[in-house]
Structures are given as structure tokens and as C-alpha cells.
Amino acid sequence: MADEWSALKRGGCLYEALMQSQWLESMHDGTVTGFFTELRVLSQIYYSLSPMW
Hints:
By secondary structure, the chain is mainly α.
């Protein structure tokens, strides 16, 4: 159980880091639409990997 939690926690940290970096890029470009598109893609990747943990 502890191993599963640490893996999930690592995945969450990675996901947050990806969101932050993408958010900064979007702010730099001045486009928020691109950010939400990427967020949707990252969400799909994240949830597709979840069963592996």
C-alpha cells in the first residue's frame, strides 16, 4: 500500500510540474487556449498510466 501511495504521489508531483511549466509557456505566449488543450492531453496520459500503479 505504501509503495502504491508513493508511486501515486510521484505521478502527482510530475503532473503538477508539467502543468506549471505549460502554464508558464502559455502565459509567455499569451494564449490560455493552448494551455487547456495541453492540459486535456496531459490528463488523458495521466489517467491512462494510473492503472499501472
